[in-house]
Design goal:
This protein is an alpha/beta fold and about 270 residues long. It is built from ten helices and ten strands. Helix 2 runs parallel beside helix 3.
Length: about 270
């Protein structure tokens, strides 16, 4: 991906300096820093094509109600919000706006999770997912949630169609599948996937509205990486998906290192 710039919207010179220093030390991203909503509007408009995400303070002197976040989202820039406080009403606002993540503002020691979240967002641009569900509405909901995390996705109506999509799209690395579907259910789909794709090459997350301990165990024992019971909270979905992808990256790196150590071809 060509986009390497991160937009940081923070009115405090001290806080913005700390954020810049930590990101420059720990990442290779280029930072664009705005200290006001007006500057954020200018940078988002002028550099939209190279900005992959924004980290935005929720309250600025000229934008006390999150207007800077709205500007970023209006320009199609995924946004991670920094808030000085947090309550349920604010959480609902974040979910409704489809922000990628949110963090409480704190000391420099608290920046590590933020940096990890930004790095995951950047990596997600290279991830393609397959959403398998016989419900058009449910497929659309999951695909929209993946898009909030910058993950491109395609859909399939059941397990049989999913296997066909995997053949057509060899770059898919994440499958999110419902359990109860015609022709081939989610458990059978996981079995078929694991016959062809190792767990460090393709991750599978099972979903079901009839979740139970037994069904969870069936998914996991047949090769799924994780399982979620519908309905689920947006934050839980985001966290599970991103953690699964983080683990997939680590497993792939370990597999590559082992092959290199043994002198085997990649």
């Amino acid at each position: 991906m060509d986009k390497r710039s991160l937009l940081v919207v923070e009115d405090s010179p001290v806080q913005s300096k700390i954020i810049r220093q930590r990101f420059e030390l720990l990442t290779s991203f280029s930072l664009l820093v705005a200290h006001s909503m007006a500057e954020a509007e200018y940078l988002a408009s002028a550099h939209k094509e190279k900005i992959f995400a924004a980290v935005a303070d929720l309250n600025l002197p000229d934008a006390p109600h999150g207007e800077a976040v709205d500007i970023c989202l209006a320009h199609g820039i995924p946004c991670i919000v920094l808030a000085a406080s947090f309550d349920e009403a604010l959480r609902k606002t974040f979910i409704d706006k489809h922000v990628a993540d949110y963090f409480l503002k704190g000391s420099i020691d608290d920046l590590e999770p933020l940096i990890a979240a930004v790095q995951r967002i950047y990596a997600n641009y290279s991830v393609k997912a397959l959403v398998v569900d016989d419900s058009t509405t449910q497929r659309a909901i999951v695909k929209k949630m993946l898009a909030v995390q910058c993950i491109n996705s395609v859909g399939a109506t059941d397990g049989v169609a999913a296997l066909e999509m995997l053949e057509e799209h060899p770059d898919i690395s994440l499958v999110i599948t419902d359990f109860n579907m015609p022709r081939m259910d989610g458990i059978e789909l996981v079995k078929e996937i694991r016959n062809k794709h190792k767990i460090h090459r393709m991750a599978v997350i099972g979903l079901s509205s009839a979740g139970s301990g037994a069904l969870t165990a069936k998914f996991l024992k047949n090769g799924a990486n994780d399982f979620l019971t519908k309905p689920f909270e947006a934050e839980e979905f985001y966290w599970r998906v991103n953690q699964t992808l983080n683990i997939l990256d680590v497993m792939e790196e370990i597999s590559t290192l082992r092959k290199c150590a043994c002198g085997a071809p990649h």
